[in-house]
Amino acid sequence: MVHRALGLGAGHRAPRRLAAERLEVDAGERLADVAREARPQEARARGRLARQPAGEEAVERPLDRLDHVAQRDLGRRSRQRVAASRSALSLHEPRAPKALEDLLEVARGDLLALADHADLHRTAGTVVREVEDPADRVLGLEGETHEAARVQGSAGGRGGGCAGRRPQICWRSPRPPALRRPLLPPRAPPPRPRGDDHAGAAAVGSVEALLREIRAERELQGEVAHCARLPARPAEHAACGARAWSRLRGARALGGVERLYAHQARALELLEADRDVVLATGTASGKSLVYQIPALADAVASPGAHALFLFPLRALEQDQQQRLYAAAAALGLAAGARRPVAIYDGDTKEAERRALREAPPAVLVTTPDMLHAGILPSHASWARFFRGLRLVVVDELHTYRGVFGGHVAQVLRRLDRVAAHYGARPRVVAASATVANPGELAARLTGREPALVERDGAPRPARHVVLLRPRGSANTTAARLFRLSVRAGLRTIAFTKARAVAELLYTWVAESDPALRHRITAYRAGYLASERREIERSLFRGELLGVISTSALELGIDVGDLDVCILVGYPGSQIATWQRAGRVGRAREGLVALVAGADALDQYLVAHPERLLAGRFEHAVLDPANPEIAGLHLACAAAELPLEAGEPWLSEPGVSACVEALEERGALYRSESGRRWFAARRRPHRDVDLRAAGASCAILLEPEAGGRAREIGSIGIGRVFAECHEGAIYLHRGRQFLVTELDLERRTVRVRAVDVPFYTRALSEKETEILSRERARPVGNFRLLLGRVRVTTRWTGYERRRVHGQDLLGTEPLALPPTSFETTALWLEMPDELRRAVEEAGGHFMGGIHAVEHAALALCPLFALCDRHDVAGISYARHPQLGRPAVFLYDASAGGVGLAPSLFERVEALLEATLELVAGCECEAGCPSCVHSPKCGSGNRPIDKRAARAALELLLARAPLPVGEEADASAPRLAAAPPPPPPEPAAPDVVFLDLETQRAALEVGGWHNAHLMRVSVAVLYETLADRFVAFGERDVEALLARLAAAELVVGFNVRRFDYRVLRGYTGADLERLPTFDLLDEIHARLGFRLALGHLGEETLGRPKTADGLQALRWWREGRLPELEAYCRADVELLRDLVRHAEAHGHLLFRTKQGERVRIPLRLRTEELIEAARARLAAPEAAAAPARAALRAAASV
User: Fold this and answer.
1) Would you tell me which CATH number, out of the four given (1.10.560.10, 2.40.50.100, 3.40.50.300, 1.10.10.60), belongs to the domain 237-453?
2) pTM of the prediction?
3) What is the rounded distance in angstroms from the CA atom of residue 256 to the CA atom of residue 595?
């Protein structure tokens, strides 16, 4: 119905990685007006919309409305087309509309398909965007709006139908204005409706009654794949001897709690013993009480005690502040001069920030981002706070994984350094959802060895779990289920993977049953903070009966007790699944329903429910030694406090290598003693984003005439070639933009708004180079290896494909530089016999292992806590380094985040699950539910599902390998003669150059006229002859010839000064000479220049004997011996500095702060010559004219 009116036919397939998010308001309203006028009188029978034949009047009225819209809103051409299409309609023709659905088909076929008005004709198909979907799935548009409009409608729903009603969706402001509904009801209704409270709410039901209704619901019959009941668990209490508990036991501040659960008591006793603690228990098990009690007890006992609470999201800060403030007020802490609790984050006003620094609260609540960028860099202003820091709380520990976790691990190490600087060593409490390795995760994150408490003593009522495999759209089934639950009076929460889906589900349910409109709401990031808080409070108070949310409500925001949790698609991990499920059934039995999507992971779990119900949680993976991330934070740490040799942090694996690399790049300066490192910049923090793996490019919207470019977003440097190459269609907030320019140097992408019926997809080829092998072990019929690899992507072109149907419209080439990064990978090295066995069975071997790669990648989140895009893969029928077939799985982030090592330990289980997935899928040749991937750069070609199954059975030794041919071991072999020793290399011909001039720069109009300054004297030091040679102005030709003959010319500012002066004597390009400029090298490392005399004095204790002005006076006075001696001394100083760098690997200089530090310069003459030759080899022939000109000048 509605989807037809929007031009989305039944055969429509949304483009890969795209999903509907936004419908233009104007066009959407016009179509809705048409549909509303088109709807005949609705006969209601038991709440269902009867299917009524449409008489001539019922047809003419909407057709008149179509004419009106055409006359008002469309161009002349469109009006003519609509009129022509109307004249062709007749009630007596076979295509004449007989019912409401057919009327909407008229709207689609005879208005939109013929009209060329951009607002109507292109709206639905082209305003799409990429959504934040961890599984990177397609949100199928087919049937979604159509079926949801019929939820409990003509197919058996209750209440009024919603045929033809517009979705009313707009994403132009934080709260969708087009929903045209009050965010909350004007007056709070009773918490749980009973009897006839309002027309749309049924009496309060039970979970068992809802289960019976689900089984009886005709639209859901056949979709329920599995039902289970998880038994209840009683509470386990324990006595606690901690002094903090003794002080606060039974206090009104803690809600009068008299007894603690066993895990709470154990954790408090460990904290009392000055141990760090990680608490890993279920949702709603009272973890927050464990760190609130010692924080409040410290605040009561000592006015100078402080605690730092870290939360991954600002929404959690607000929730925690409210609870803490209420508890502090009950203890009388709010009445004192010191504030008991305060939030310090990006929303905190500057005056408030200043007040918090001067008088820090007892508990400071913040995020890791603000700790990194706002507190640690200014630690001197927080000295009072750090001196009294007793407790650090890291809540939602399980969220600190991958790239974000790697950053936070470094921030916590920096926090330890700063706290130690002020004499504090705070205890650390980490609170986590249930993961497979909470102790290991906490140790990696904090750099400490915390005590683990994971036996959950909290009670848990029984829960029912229902797994559904929809015949059509998962969103449609979820909408039906949500509506059933809310109408039964059960407090319900639905979790979706995308903002768009949350809004669509709300709209469909509200339109299908208007009486529920003010009892339900959507919730997602993007709403105003005040709106989100009001929704949370209304849920807690029971004023709202249902909420449809993204993951924004997954974490520990308290919204009260709920009855039903609907998961619209598998959340991506067991941890997220049970974290969300923990929202329901806290005080009575609850229901958790998983509505499976079409992708491989969802379908696998529905087919194997024991994997979901067995409680086998994933391993949370974190690599604090990622060199890309550690390097950023080492520079930040050095800016806060100089790094000291012997620090515990520097002894961690890989950290010392990072320090050396930073020193080499000039980001750190090493002290003369070699024991300390200083930051090269005062605030490197500004360039470090904790939630990103690297740099990003700004996306700039081209201005209209006379305007300025406006930044509309950003994109990571790792994705910019794939999504923002020139000619790409970039999607942002539902709108299309054409990329007109990609400037890598400025890191900007320029775009302009367009409205086109196609999208683009970059084409690439990947290569994997093995850099090192760290571990290996045999598995089944293959060898498994782990090591470092370099992944290189070559961007070959891009496709333009039609939005509707994905028809290929054309392919364009791309001229982009290849991109590469180093990471950690595991790879399956297969014997050639495996290939032969698959091919002899009639399979396409490359298609088979390609399918194995896709299916294994899809299931990786079952074995390591990650998102689908965190791991990537590539398959080889024959890898060039291995000489045999291989499948690589690697961390998709530069440097690696620890996923490949984790999967290395579990590869057998991963491949077993992959075989179960491939064998259990009912498709013939492969589909998105098993071996097709939406991320495949080759468009899922080649793919052979049967070959994949055969390959997996052979890999796991379920089937024997055929016997291969072995080389004849009896054949005699001749011993190879040892190679002759290489000849001793000849010493290179290197000259050191310096010259003085007859005139000053001011005398010739500036430094750009250096060719007019004329040579007074030049001195060379020849390494082969070990001698100094002086040249006057009349000897310049000989000087030029000698420079041309040398293998390397070494100078100090030689390119910017000496060569420019000599340019006055020759037409040759002196830049083509093989040159090493020491000043250029220093500038490249430090970002600024240093004087030769400063380097000589700090490094060798030898300052310059004079300066350039004195040299000019000597020339004018005719004192040539003094002038030549001064020039010779400069050349000698330059030579000795280079030799010092060769011998010691550094030079010294003094910073503005007075510290003498090192410039890392590991100079080797042979390497300098090779680098100079490489620079000139573009092409080598280009250097020949310069050399020939110099030699010709010498012969004159």
Assistant:
1) 3.40.50.300
2) 0.72
3) 40
